[in-house]
Amino acid sequence: MIARNGDNVQAATSTSSTAKYTLANTASAPTTAAASTSSITVTVNVNGNPAATTYAIYNFTDGNYLTAAGAVTTTPVWQTTSTWGASFVSASLSVNSPYQFNIIARNGDNAQAATSSSSTAVYTLTNPAGTGTVAPVSTTSLTVAISTNGNPAGTTYAIYNATAGTFLDSSGAATTTAVYQTSSTWSNATSTGLTVNTAYQYQVVARNGDNTNAASSTASAAKYTLTSVPTSANTNVNSGSQITFTWGGNGTQYYVENSTAGTTSGWTTNNYYVSSALNCGSSYSFRVKAKSGDNVETDWASSVSAITNECGGVLPSGGGSSSSGSQPAATPATPATPATPAAPATPATPAIPATPATPSSRSSAASYVFRKAMRRGSTGADVRKLQEKLKELGYFTYSSITGLYGPVTANAVSALQRAQGWKQVGVVGPKTLELLNSLSNSQSTVSAPQFTPPVSTTTAAPRSSAASYVFRKAMRSGSTGADVRKLQEKLKELGYFTYPSITGLYGPVTANAVSALQRAQGWRQVGVVGPKTLELLNSL
Question: Is residue 338 one of the residues assigned to a domain?
């Protein structure tokens, strides 16, 4: 200050006043963004204030200030924007919770400007959901229980069927778009429209209040839908001491009980059970149940019964007969006694066997060329042809050709692989494709077995070891040894056994060859070598 008198004479200039700062501008609302499940970044907007201006950051939601480390304090901490940093992290927050912040500016005299307006509410991120728990409900549905992994009640979740590549809608049906609901709304979600006895895995995706997704949960353990109670149970009476029980189904394994005899099959992948050592002229009841890939058992199917052949009676043609549970209406007629052949003076010209009936025309699967790998879930023409080929070979026992590669088809492929001594993976890869095509090619030129009369000479043509072999033992699926090898050699000579090698194992291919031989005689085709079939083999 400078003072002046009435004559305008100035006094000396006063000493300077103490320095004073103008007030700071009120800071603008801060910018916030979610950083993690427990932190949010806060950016100070200076609103034109100079660099030396200091600021305090206030957590409006929790009613506290931030320290220089981002922790909580009850007193304001003042720092310039360069010290706070471009995006300061507020830590120790709650998961998936909304937060708002304010900024207070202060000038060089520590005079505070008005508090800024609050930031827009921003949610912290949510925890990834825990692994869901899956349980079977029916043959076409599974329940999925969500594990929230510490997320608050308002967190929403989507459920993903990792096996089918689809999400669940609010009703549990498949959809291509994620549907988000709270865990209480989902409750135990039921995934519907699934395939019977098939394994499925699920993942859960959590989302916070700002619709930001967390990482997907780890996939649940694979769980199978339930399998159906076996159907189409039937009995075939093979003799006075043996009955074959068959059925259809989509189980992974089956368990048969001969309720009358008190015997069982044990768990098996077969769709048939041969019950032997039975009493002639006696009634026997059979029942079967199945279990899924997770070993969940079905109820028993309804029992069916059959009566073995009468004691001392003749066998039905072909070594067996079919029964639906009651005694046949009439006893089969006794065949006429064959005439006794005259003793040959010299090696006689072998008798000319009757020409077998021409087998029915071969299916298109016999000449089909398989090129594509197939596994569970595959569909279409390739699968249909595969099922036709497996049915021809006796491995595919389902009642119809479906074109869907499900558990029944996988089991049939495994059985084919097991017959080769391979690892049974139930998947058609390059090696199995090669086998299928070799079987098709080896059969593509096979016509009805023809018997050419030998040229009449004084000396009979040499016969193979199978031709001179005398068959004495009954044989059926599961039989092994020299008798089976000779049987296969004989059937190969006659054109019925088309497998590339002699195995000595009586499996589906051998049973089919025996059935073809029996069909050529006009007999019932049971695929079992009984007394009448033994007599035929020895006559040939």
Answer: no
Residue 220 domain boundaries: 130-224
Residue with tokens 């692994």: 131
Residues near 166 by Cβ (< 8 Å), separated by ≥ 6?
160, 174, 175, 176
Closest C-alpha to 36, from 125, 98, 150: 125
CB neighbour burial string for 205-230, b if at least 16 within 10 angstroms, e if fewer: bbbbbeeebbeebebbeebbbbbbbb
Torsion angle defined by CA atoms of residues 478, 484, 488 and 493, in that order, rounded to the nearest 10 degrees: -150
Enumerate residues 6+ apart whose C-beta is below 8 A from 402.
Answer: 383, 384, 387
User: CATH no. for residue 493?
Assistant: 1.10.101.10
Q: How many CA atoms lie within 13 A of 483 on its CB side?
A: 16
| Statement: the pTM of the whole predicted model exceeds 0.70 | no
144-188 pLDDT, tens digit per residue, is: 999 999 999 999 999 999 999 999 999 999 999 999 999 999 988
Token pair for residue 522? 């006009």
Quick check: is 456 in a domain? no
Q: Check whether residue 264 and residue 318 sit in a common domain.
A: yes
Dihedral sign computed on CA atoms, order 170, 172, 173, 177: positive
CATH code of the domain containing 118? 2.60.40.10
In terms of domains, do 110 and 134 share one? no
C-beta of residue 318 within 8 angstroms of C-beta of residue 474: no
Give which of 74, 132, 127, 72 is closest to 99, Cα–Cα: 72
Say what the alpha-carbon torsion angle 82, 84, 86, 91 is, to the nearest 10 degrees: 170
Q: Which of 108, 123, 138 is the last residue of a domain?
A: 123
State which of 265, 294, 323 marks the end of a domain.
Answer: 323
- Say if residues 53 and 24 touch (Cβ distance below 8 Å): yes
Amino acid at 67: T
